[in-house]
Amino acid sequence: MEKKELSCVDCGILNCNKRNSVYPEFCPTAALTEEEAREVMALYEEPENHRMAVTAAEVEAEFYMKYTRVEEIAEFARRMGYRKIGIATCVGLIEESRIFARILRKKGFEVYGAACKAGSVNKTEIGIPEEAYLGKGPGPVMCNPILQAKLLNREGTDFNVAVGLCVGHDSLFYKYSEAPVTTLIAKDRVLGHNPAAALYQCSGYYSRLLEENKGE
Fold it and tell me: What's the CA gap between 94 and 47, in Å, rounded?
C-alpha cells in the first residue's frame, strides 16, 4: 500500500500508547500540528465533554477487568448524575432489555424504553417493495430508529443505551438522539451477539472473510 493509505489500523508499533519507540512515517500523531492538537484539547474544556472524559477514565481505572459492561454503564451514569436512562432496543432483544431495565431501576434510575418497531409503519412506506420481505426476514413492519430517538428525546432522557439495533439503524438512532449514547449489545444473531468472534476466527472457520471480492 502507498504510504498515504496507511493509518492506525496498519500500525504494529503503537508508540502513541507505550511511548517506548518511534512513530512511523504515516502516523497521525506525528503529523498532528500544534494548532490541531490545541483545537482538540480545547473541546475537552467544554464542561460536559470534560465531565464525560474524566468520568469515563475514572470508571475505567477503578473497575477495569472487574465490572461487566452493564455495571460500567450504570456506574458511569451514576457518576455523571444522570437520572433517566433511555433504552433503544431491537424487539428481538426485548427480554434482554427488560432485564437491563430491572437492573437500572434497582440502582435508582428512571428508565424509558423505545422498541425498534414503535410506530408500526409498513416498510413500503419508505419505498421497500413487498417482494423484498414477503416470506422471509422479520416481516413487513420497518425498524424506526429515528422515531426511537424522538421518543427518548421527548421523554427527556439523560443518557441512552442501544440494545441490538441493526447495522445502519443504530447509526440513524445515534444521529437523532439528543442525549449521549452508548451501546450495550451489538447485534450478531449468527454469533450470539459477539461480533468479535468473526475476527478471532479469521484464520480458521471465517477465513472466507479475508477473500477478495470478485469483480470489484
Answer: 35
Number of other CB atoms surrounding residue 114 within 10 Å: 26
Q: What is the distance between the alpha carbons of residues 157 and 82, in angstroms, rounded to a whole number?
A: 8
What are phi and psi for residue 212, nearest 5 degrees?
-70, 140
The pLDDT assigned to 93 comes to 98
Q: Is 184 helix (H, G, I), strand (E, B) or coil?
A: strand
Mean pLDDT by 10 residues, the chain (216 residues): 77 94 94 97 98 98 98 98 98 98 98 98 90 72 97 98 98 98 97 95 91 70
Q: What is the pLDDT of residues 25-55, one digit of tens each?
A: 999 999 999 999 999 999 999 999 999 999 9
What size, in residues, is the chain?
A: 216
Locate 84 and state its grid cell: 433517566
Cα distance between residue 90 and residue 142, in whole Å: 11
- Alpha-carbon distance 181 to 21, whole Å? 35
Alpha-carbon dihedral angle through residues 127, 131, 137, 140, given to the nearest 10 degrees: 50
Rounded CA separation 151/88 (Å): 10
- Phi, psi torsion values for 43, nearest 5 degrees: -65, -30
Extract the C-alpha cell encoding 19.
Answer: 511511548
What stretch of H or E contains 105? helix 94-106
